[in-house]
Amino acid sequence: MDNQTIYALSTVQGRSGVAVIRISGPMALDTVKFLTNINPQTIKPRYAYFSPLHNSSGEVLDHALVLYFKAPHSFTGEDIVELQTHGSKAVISSVLSALSSLKGFRYASAGEFSKRAFLNHKMDLTQAEGLADLIDAETSEQQKFAIRQIEGNLKNLYESWREQLLKVLAHLEAYIDFPDEELPPELINNLENTVFKIISAIEYHLSGNNIGESMRDGFRVVILGAPNAGKSSLINALTSRDAVIVSDIAGTTRDAIDIHMDINGYPVIFTDTAGLRETGEEIERQGIAIAYRKASDSDLVINLFDGCENIHQPLENIDKTKIISVANKADKLSPQTISYLNSQGIITISAKYKQGLDTLLSAISDNIKQRVTDNSGLLITRHRYTEALKNTINHLKQFNLSKEIELAAEDIRLSARELGKITGFIEVDEILNKIFSSFCIGK
Description:
By secondary structure, the chain is an alpha/beta fold. The chain has helices at 29-35, 89-100, 112-119, 125-136, 140-150, 153-176, 185-206, 211-217, 231-239, 282-297, 335-343, 357-374, 383-397, 405-423, 429-436, and strands at residues 5-9, 16-24, 48-54, 60-69, 80-87, 105-107, 219-225, 257-263, 266-272, 300-306, 323-328, 347-348. The strands form 2 sheets. The chain has a 6-stranded mixed sheet. Strands 8-9-7-10-11-12 form a 6-stranded mixed sheet, sandwiched between helices. Helix 4 (125-136) runs antiparallel to helix 5 (140-150). The radius of gyration is 29 Å and the shape is flat.
């Protein structure tokens, strides 16, 4: 990290009522000295001041609110000045231009404010990535879990495991210094028991089947069924628009089509697929293969069939726990038939008349909610967490006090290092740029 003072627009680029320009670094207070009428010697941290903003020629650019956050009690841990200006393009451009003329100032790179916060120990990497998820959150549940991550839920979990491993390592290192002494049997049992418990805890944590990544990117719900079962009609009914083409001609849908929705706060991606049937047409066959592949990779599968034909085809080679069976065209079914289907655990709907959709959506959100609850709300939100946790387990499973104590200590050291990669409490320069470059400018 260089010692320059950085600045950037922290609100959305374009016309708005208010724009926030953030300045962070050792010379942040020079902004007050050169751009405002406020005496920087008298300015109080966390007080709002109203002042004209002017450039080096004395030309007034705007009248703005000025706030000062004194290090280390700021987002980045450095001195920060925020300018709340009017949000016109002309004002924003002129203020940024005035800042660029100050010596020792430069425009911030993507995510640099958050990166400085990490480097100044204001947050760990999981909290920084939780902040990125909060900025990108589109649903209430995404917002909720991002805030939990910012508050340190994942950090505390991973650091608790790492601290336990460091205690194990400390015991081993102590005996490495005294090679003539043997480890007491009681200590051996305690160390092996600690490692076993950590392995079990991490394996349970990993058993969530990527729920956290689905929470961030969207839970995938694939609709499978025979041609003309009403898959495309269901998509259109759910979205209340003609999102996909509906036709009585079998095989109209050839490729998978994704539709994004917010269901009770959970981000859901519905995928309409080609009708499942035997066909000699090559393009349609490829579409069916894609449908099965999408279903295999999905979080849930809606097995949709025409209730009038009363042919419920079970889906082979797909996890039964993620299948929701749905009979369409309930408007043409007798109450007795509907009652029978419901007794078999089959949801009845009419895509044409939008009947039963609330029941279907509730079943989807209840299924997702249960999966999240089963994981105690501590979700693995990044693939890199999964990889580091798997590596941790691999090293711990090689731990054995029947081999040379130096080798056993190395297994613990490597496993602790893998956990440290997640939170950033080791040298992780190789991953920092990748993480923070995905942030927006001004954050």
